[in-house]
Amino acid sequence: MLEQLRSLEEEALAALAAVNDPEALKEWRVRYLGRRGALTTLMRGLGKLPPEERPQVGQAANRVKRALEEAFAEREAAIKAAELEAQLAAEAVDVTLPGRPVALGRLHPTTQSLRRIYEIFSDMGFQIYDAREVEYDEYNFGLLNMPPHHPARDMWDTFWINDRVLLRTHTSPGQIHAMREFYPNPIRVILPGKCYRYEQVTARSEFMFYQVEGLVVGRNITMADLKGTMENFVRRMYGGERRMRLRGSYFPFTEPSVEVDVDCVLCGGKGCRVCKYTGWLEVAGAGMVHPIVLRNGGYDPDEFTGYAFGMGVERPAMLKYRIDDIRYFYSNDPRFLAQI
Ligand code: PHE
Question: Which run of H or of E encompasses 210?
Answer without folding.
Answer: strand 208-218
